[in-house]
Structures are given as structure tokens and as C-alpha cells.
Amino acid sequence: MFQDISGLFLQILPESMKERECVLRMKMLSIAIVALLVLGFTATVAAGPSRGTGGRDGAGHLTLFAKDPSTGDIVPGGAWGIMSYQLPDGSQNAEKFVFSGHHLAPDTGYSLIYNPDPWPGYHFILLGKGTSDASGEVCFKGGFNFDGIFIGGEPAAEIRLVLSRDVGAGQLTGWNPAGYLFEERRRG
């Protein structure tokens, strides 16, 4: 009887070991896949916001950044926002946009403006406005005739997010650039 049990054990053992090895390999593969996904997500988040502009189908985005007022350099880890827009059928009429801002001052009014004047022009066109929430996030949408604003997918003049308290009757009434978001490229 003991031989029957030991023979049975020897017949079962190799199969069990194969199953265990297969399960172990599946677990290792699963861990590797999860690790790659986590690394990919971390790399995407660490890269920060993209800086791309328009697409061929009339859809595009413009990323705005907090900049050091003395140097004009983007503030690493600072406030930023994205204006996503749609130019229907490639034309530049009746465009729609959504703006979302992040890491802004909490509970603060902001205005998105288009500044057609040469830098540092103080006259502008108001595109939209909103108030950040307690965590410094703001989101609003609007529509505007962008005719002439975008040339070849790039803005022909400056688009900025400014403090609403600095806005009055089509011009800036205050200048507090530490609280603004600017396009990536330098103006001069």
C-alpha cells in the first residue's frame, strides 16, 4: 500500500511542479507587465504637459505656462494650462475652445485673452473667463472667431491667462506677470 501511495505521489509531483512553474511564470509575467505600465505612467506624468499645437483636421491645443518675470523662463513645476480648440472644416470661423488651468492660485478669477498688439501690448480681446476652485484648477469654454489668430497652426499674436482683477474695458489695468500664464515661446 505504501508503494502505491509513493508511486502515486511520484506521478503527481512532476505534474504539480509543472503547474507551479507555470503559475509562477504567469505571476512573474503579470508583475513585469504591471511594472512596465507603472513606469510608463510615471514617465508620462513626469514629462508634464505637452507643448504641441494645431492638427491638420483643425483641432489643436496651445499650452500656457507660468514664467519667471525676470527671465521669461518657464517655471519648473509651476502653473500651466491648455487651450484646446477646433477650427471646423479647417476654416477659421465659429471656433470653439476649452481651457483648463492647473496649479493656479485657489479661488481666483482668471481671464483668457488674445493680445493682437505687438509685445508687450496692453489692448486685448477677451476669449473667456473663470474662477479657480479651492485646489487651483479652472475650466471654461467659449467660442470666438479666430480668423487671423492662427496662421499655420500657430497663434499670430500672444494668448495669455491673466488675473481678472487686472482686466478692464479691453485693456490690462494692472500688470502682475507672476500670476499669469504665457505661451511657451519667447516674445521680444
Helices and strands, with pairings:
Elements: H1 2-47, E1 59-65, E2 80-86, E3 95-102, E4 109-115, E5 125-131, E6 138-144, E7 150-151, E8 154-155, E9 158-163, E10 167-168, E11 171-172, E12 182-183
Antiparallel strand pairs: 1-2, 1-12, 2-3, 3-6, 4-5, 4-9, 7-8, 10-11
Task: Write up what this structure looks like.
The chain is of the alpha+beta class and 188 residues long. The chain folds into two domains: 1-47; 59-183, Immunoglobulin-like (Sandwich). The chain is 24% helix and 31% strand. It contains one helix and twelve strands; from the N terminus they run αββββββββββββ. It has one helix at residues 2-47; strands at residues 59-65, 80-86, 95-102, 109-115, 125-131, 138-144, 150-151, 154-155, 158-163, 167-168, 171-172, 182-183. The strands form four sheets. The chain has a five-stranded antiparallel β-sheet with strand order 6-3-2-1-12, with no helix packed on it. A three-stranded antiparallel β-sheet has the order 5-4-9, with no helix packed on it. It has a two-stranded antiparallel ribbon with strand order 7-8. A hairpin with an 8-residue loop joins strand 2 and strand 3 (95-102). The longest helix is centred in the first third of the chain and has 46 residues, at 2-47. The radius of gyration is 28 Å and the shape is elongated. It starts with a helix and ends in a 5-residue tail after the last strand. Mean pLDDT is 74; it is low at 5-10 and 41-56.
